[in-house]
Amino acid sequence: MLRMPRLSLVVPVYNVQGYLAECLESVLGQDYQDFEIVAVDDRSPDGSGALLDEYAARDDRIRVIHLMENVGLGRARNAALELARGDYVLFLDSDDTLAPGALGAIAERLTAAGDPDVLIYDYVRTYWDGERRPNQKARLLAEAGPGVFPLAERPQLLSLLQIVCNKAYRREFIAREGLTFPPGYYEDALWTFRSLISAERIAVLDRVCLLYRQRREGGNILATVSRKHFDIFEQYRRVFEFLDTRADAEQWRAPLFRKMVDHYLAILERPGRLPRDARAEFFHRAAADYRARMPAGFRKPAGSRGKKYALLERDAYAGLVGAKAVVKLRAKATGYARTTLGRTRRTALSLDYRHQLRLPLDENLAVFSAYGGSGVSCNPAAIDAELARRAPHIRRVWAVRPDAVDQVPEGVDIVRTGSREYWAALARATYLVNNENFPDAMVRRPGQIHVQTHRGTPLKTMGLDRRQYPAAAGTDFAALLRRCDRWNFSLVSNHFSSAVWQRAYPCSYTSLATGYPRNDVLLNSTAEDVREARHELGLGERVTAFLYMPTRREYRHGSEPRLDLAKLAGRLGPDAVLLVRAHPGERPAEWPAAWRSEDRIVDVSGHPAVERLYLAADCLVTDYSSAMFDYANLDRPIVVHADDWETYSAVRGTYFDVRTEGPGAVATTEEELAEVLCSGAWRGERAARARDRFRRRFCDFDDGRAAERVVRHIFLGEELGDLPPVVPLDERTPAPPPEPSRDASALISTHTSQR
Q1: What is the pLDDT of residue 751?
Q2: What is the DSSP secondary structure assignment for residue 276, as one 8-state letter?
Q3: Pairing state of beta strands 489-491 and 88-91?
């Protein structure tokens, strides 16, 4: 027989891949171990279900239920309750976490209290900016007095936040009372009121056990604008029907009536819940409930709150609107200067720009930008090219810095950043495509579609994940997130990135698992395309080309590579060439003149298309650049030079250890790198196995049709289900490798032995 654990943790999961690992680790890392996790994949559209399976494969205390359809939070919890075996059931939402030592403290308190029906413990709200707000009514959890008690002895506990995740419930009590979650929003209301009123023995724990995440982007469904908020009327109908079955109903009628009215008013007062055209209807429904359920002799609260109660009692929606209008007018009079258009008097926010914002959008205008306007490149360029083929009626304009105009190919329409034409284009375009962010002063108008393509898969920490690292010093994260709030779509090339972006940029965009359009060429190019790419760079057939792409170091000044390139080129011999591409934020002009004059060292920093460099190269040599994720699509060798890993990972922060989870051979010194390249280890069996693992982890969606998916969905309005499905990794055919006339690694080894 299976041993029954003391605690069962029910974890419903939906669209939380950016937070799920942290949630599970907070449980698995507890010092108390007598528990099980019953996790329910509520038909999550992201990678959450797969992540649950990975954890379950590693730890047999985790059981996973995959639902065949999305049923919502309450019914997902019900599915888990059917399988829970513990003496006590705890509910943990999959974006929340447990505090260290929480389970041990809970288990100890349960035993000390003689196994109560319900144990209530404390929580803190945690926010994206690191703020923590304690429970303002935590004093009610003071453990003075009897160890256990019925609610009638401490009715003030009803004023606590009525959520299920700050309580442990005895499983036999749940079964005895027939507790289940109803469908719809606000499912916690019925459960919490029923359980607290029905419990004969309640205990409290004056300790923070739950870290209750307040997701900035409104990941909680209750912060979603929807008519589903009308579900609350049905939930309170159930609450009062339950109350009607109780002999002691009268003592609870007034407290629950007040909870109901406060709940209704909270929904009306919060702008991110009800659609504008549903507010009056909601108010009238709330007013009807007010009059139908008001207890005899009920006394309204004092002050402004009592006035709102009175408006509901009279069904006076016009009075509520008038009161809110006065407040809004006052706020507008004092705060308008703080809006986007009033924050600055720069040229971008001139009267001309304001005028353009009042003109209609041009439904056939798209503005593209990449790397701060440095040219035509990256994912935006690939989308631009596909758009030209599929929707030539859409005018495509590139925003380019004045000093980069000469790098724009002929025939491309441009506007110079900062110019009047630039701001007019931003104001009038329906489509905005960028791999960075547009200026803070830009206003995303209703109807505009902002596509964030990103610049690559992140190894180093990004967005809010950078906050704890020194390299982020001075970063205005609030301003960063305001820029990200303008995104409509975020393109991702793998499940890993999707999870990172969700946590690092917690805003209300839609993630599109299209793949990166710039990588299409790596899957669609032919052997002739590879030969042409090499010919453009002057690479002969007998030459082995190593593409060296280091990333920048925030902790050091200057742009000089960490390698002695001349020395390395000498070790490699005459049949090898180093193609060196600096990070966009570095300055190759600072490199030693000797390197630039060396035939076997070619500076390709100014090459307009890094994808052509990938096609031409036999091998990528990098440190921590996101280039490794793109180049892996070619299934060609990659070498990692991680000579300063400890410093880099401490200063910038990373998502995994590239030395043990990287895409190929790893060198930690310059001498080791030379040995790897000269010996042929760079393309040996061990390196190939590492590359295969890496590709299966990070090459999820790049199958050669990313640009097509983006254009058909975003610009042509086709449904996601009608787009080409992603080709499985093993069925893809990358561009073929270069075809040297003889074994290049043998040439390098021979040259080395002759030195």
Answers
A1: 44
A2: G
A3: unpaired
Token digits of residue 171: 């499983």
Instruction: Output phi, psi for 610, to 5 deg.
Output: -65, -25
Sole residue written with tokens 């008097």: 345
Both tokens of 120, joined, read: 């209530």
> Alpha-carbon distance 8 to 88, whole Å?
6
Ranges in the chain, pLDDT < 70? 1-2, 217-223, 322-349, 557-560, 585-598, 740-755
HSE, CB side, 13 Å, CA atoms: give it for residue 693: 12
Return the number of other C-beta atoms located less than 10 Å from residue 25's C-beta: 13
Do 334 and 404 form a contact (C-beta atoms < 8 A)?
no
Give the sign of the dihedral formed by CA 471, CA 476, CA 481, CA 483.
negative
5 and 85 in contact (C-beta within 8 Å)? Answer: yes
Q: Can you tell me the distance from the alpha carbon of 188 to that of 74, in angstroms, rounded to the nearest whole number?
A: 8
Cα–Cα separations (whole angstroms), residue 641 to 25, 274, 333: 31, 54, 58
DSSP sequence for 456-494: S--SB--GGGGTTSGGGTT--HHHHHHHHTT-SEEE-SS
609-612 long-range Cβ contacts below 8 angstroms, 24+ apart: 609/377, 609/381, 610/377, 610/581, 611/518, 611/519, 611/521, 611/522, 612/521, 612/533, 612/536
How far apart are alpha carbons 266 and 248 in whole angstroms? Answer: 28
Maximum distance among all Cα pairs of the chain, rounded to whole angstroms: 103
CB 107 within 8 A of CB 87: no
| pLDDT single digits (tens) 333-375 | 444 444 544 454 455 457 788 889 999 999 999 999 999 999 9
The CB density around residue 743, as the number of other CB atoms within 10 Å, is 12
Q: How far apart are CA 3 and CA 6, in angstroms?
A: 10
What are the tokens at 655? 């998502």
Helix (H/G/I), strand (E/B), else coil: 365: strand
- Rounded to 10 degrees, the C-alpha dihedral 215/216/222/226 comes to -140
Q: φ and ψ at 668, to 5 degrees?
A: -110, 0
Give the contacts of 46 (CB within 8 A, at least 6 positions apart).
15, 16, 17, 495, 498, 499, 502, 511
Amino acid at 379: N
Q: Identify the H or E element spanning 640.
A: strand 638-641
- Using only C-alpha atoms, what is the Rg of the chain? 30
Nearest CA-CA partner of 482 in 445, 437, 451, 432: 437
Q: Report pLDDT digits (tens) over 9-64.
A: 999 999 999 999 999 999 999 999 999 999 999 999 999 999 999 999 999 999 99
**Closest CA relative to residue 64, chosen from 111, 7, 12:** 12
Token digits for 391?
Answer: 């929707």
> What local confidence, expressed as pLDDT, does residue 334 receive?
44
How distant, in Å, are the alpha carbons of 20, 38, 54, 116 from that of 13? 8, 10, 14, 28
pTM, two decimals, is: 0.83
3-class secondary structure for 24-38? HHHHHCCCCCCEEEE
User: 90 - beta bridge partners?
Assistant: 9, 168
> Which residue type sits at 606?
G
Task: Enumerate the H helices of 520-624 as residue ranges.
Answer: 520-524, 527-536, 565-572, 593-597, 610-616
Q: Give CA–CA dist 538/553, Å, rounded.
A: 31
Residue in the structure block whose two tokens are 């200057």: 558
**How many whole angstroms separate alpha carbon 352 and alpha carbon 356?**
6
